[in-house]
Every structure is written in C-alpha cells, then in structure tokens.
Amino acid sequence: MLLSDVRIPVALQLVLDDVGWMYGRDERWENYPSRTGMPRRHVLEDYVAINEVGRAINMKIHATFVIGEWDKWGVLRKVPNSNPFGENWNGSPHLNVAEAEKIRDYINGSEYIEIALHGLLHDYWYNGVNIGGREYEQPEGNVKGGKGIRVSNDYLRTHLDAFMEIYNNWGFTKPIRSFCCPGGAGTAWKDDEFSSVLKEYGIKYWCNGGIDRCRVSNGIIINPKAVPFLPWEAYDINPAKLETLNPETSGIISGHWPCLLRYDPELNLERVGDWKKYFQRQANVFGHILPRDIAFTSHQQLYRYFAKLSEHGDMIKLDLTKADEAYPNKQPVYISVKDGAAPTQCIGGVISEYEKMEGFINYKIDRTATSIIYIK
Ligand SMILES: [Zn+2]
C-alpha cells in the first residue's frame, strides 16, 4: 500500500441554518429579523423535506434552530436585546399554534433531523432597532455597523436559557448537543470563554462560518463550515446543476433551510432523488465521505485535521497522537483506500470494510489503546 492509496476523508455534513422560523421573509428593513429570506410561511412540508433528504442519504441533517417565533409565553420579554419590542414583546405574531404542534410532533419523531441551538430571533436589537445580525455580539456604540463586541457570559446565558425554556415548554424531546452562532462565529470560537458557557448547556459540537480551523475548547469540538454552497435565500434549487466539490477545500456544507425547499411546498419532495444523486456524486470522490451525523463529522474532522499519515517500511503509519491530545477518546477513524490496495493487516485497531465506492473503499478502524496505527 502506497501513501497515495490512502486518505483520511473529509466528512460532508449538511448543515441547514435557520430552521424553525414560522415566516420566511427577510424584514430587516422594518427592524424585524432576517429569517430565511423565503417569501412565504414555513410549513410542516418544509420539515418533511429535511427528513426525507436525510433519509435518502442516511445522514442526520444538522438543523440549526431559531426558536423565537415559537414563543407563546412572552419569554423574550425578559431577554435583553432579543426582539424589536423589548419588554413589550407580546409573543410571536407569526405563531400558528395548531401548525406548530404538528411540526413539533413531526420533529420529535423524525429520524434524520438533528436540532442544534442557534438563537431566539437571530439578530441584535437596541431601542427597537435591528442593529446587527449576530445575536451574541453587541455592535459597538449600539449602532448598525459598529464593531462587534462579544456579550458577557451572563447575557449569553439569558439567551440560551430562554431558548431551552421555549424548547422544553413546547415539549420538544430531542436532546441538543450542538451549536451554531447566528451570523458567523466572530471571535467567540478563538478562546475558551464562550465555550465554557456552552458546555453548561451540554454542547459537545460547534460548527460555524468564520472559523478557519478545527479546535477543541472545553471538550467541545469546533469546526468551520467549509463549503459556502448557495446564496443564503436561494430556493427551488436543481441539485443536478451544482458542482462536484474538491476534497482539498470541502468539508461541512454551509446550507440554509430554503436550499432544500420549493416555493410551492407541495413540490418539496420532487427533487429528493436529485439530492440523493448529488450527495452520491460527492461521496464517490476519493477524499470525501458522507457522515451519519454531527458526532461522526466532528470526530472525523478532528482526525483529518490533527492526524498524520506517513510511510513506515512497507506499512502506512496513522499517527493520532495530536488528535488524542486535543480530545482524549478512542472514537473510530474512517480511511479511504484505493481499489487494488486493500489492507491485509492493521496493528492498533480493528479494520473493517464500511462502504464500497467508485474506485475506492471506505474502511472503519475501531481503535484499541494506542494512538499509533499501522496498516498494510
Ligand atoms: Zn443563522
């Protein structure tokens, strides 16, 4: 086996931001939220679309959830800078309770939707004016365009508490283990302050735009969204026309809810087969793998970033020392091996065929105690 026959593939996790809005239109010009940019209400069929694309590609789609329009109790009244009306917030004008109940039941029972914590109403309000697109960042001088100042830990807690209060009051049952800052990560990911608060809420994985490398902070694996994908408010997409990604630059796919949706929600499922073909096309590129969920993705990303492959006599050495230093555990590692170079021996782990692709095979290595694995 040559070094060129082996790769640690990058996990193409599909992330859809801003799931949860009741209404899609971007109304920042009226000091309301940015939402999904889609000029119609969001309905149950829009969640079915996520789940069915997930089922087609056997991946739990990472849906970063905005929950403010689910507020029927006036929770946001007590949350600073969270809404256009401040303490006079009367609950969301866009909430249709009967429809929301159907959506909640569907999400709770869905196999392929993973809910991640995103925000309340996504943006930052000051005296009724929407002055910024990052809920956890205060524009300097409280004016639009002001340099972003990271909010205090207590401020952050009031927002995360409100999110969990609305989530739990509604009876959502999926545990939340991952996070995404609205509007990009800013500087929040660079030190261990912000993550120390996220840890209190059980967050284990964090992926965002505006991050340039994988890092671990307070036991949370932080990853960049690598593939910009499509304009944020684009919908009615034909996936057959989208490019094949390059494994040198690809990674977590920064999608947005509308990209799977149609203007007419009755047509949402029409292109599920085309989405399946799109992801199969990506998966058949040597260097890509389709992950099952954000945990698979985060660990594989950690290995891809920190592990080192080298030749060692007639064996390939997979050195996971740096990955294990950053995040001590023994999660499986996936490797891709070109056809004709099938491994016959593995020291330091148990190797098994995971899936056969075009021209290569993905293998799963269940690790034993060591950080160094040899493959022949
Ligand atoms: Zn967002």
Structure, explained:
- By secondary structure, the chain is α/β, with parallel strands linked by helices.
- It folds into 2 domains: 12-295, TIM Barrel (Alpha-Beta Barrel), CATH 3.20.20; 307-375, no CATH class.
- 22% of the residues lie in helices and 26% in strands.
- The chain contains 7 helices and 22 strands.
- The strands form 6 sheets. Strands 3, 4, 5, 10, 11, 12, 13 and 14 form an 8-stranded mixed beta sheet that branches. The protein has a 4-stranded antiparallel beta sheet with strand order 1-18-21-20. The protein has a 4-stranded antiparallel beta sheet with strand order 16-17-22-19.
- Strand 8 and strand 9 (148-150) form a beta hairpin.
- Helix 1 runs parallel beside helix 5.
- The longest helix is centred in the middle third of the chain and has 18 residues, at 153-170.
- It is globular.
- Residues 17-18, 118, 122, 182 line the site of zinc ion.
- Zinc ion (ZN) binds next to strand 3.
Question: Could you give a quick summary of the protein structure above?
Answer:
The protein has helices at 44-57, 97-109, 153-170, 193-200, 272-283, 294-306, 321-326, and strands at residues 6-7, 10-11, 14-19, 61-66, 113-119, 124-126, 129-132, 137-139, 148-150, 178-179, 205-208, 215-217, 220-227, 252-256, 288-289, 308-312, 315-319, 333-338, 346-347, 349-356, 360-367, 372-375. It is built from 7 helices and 22 strands.
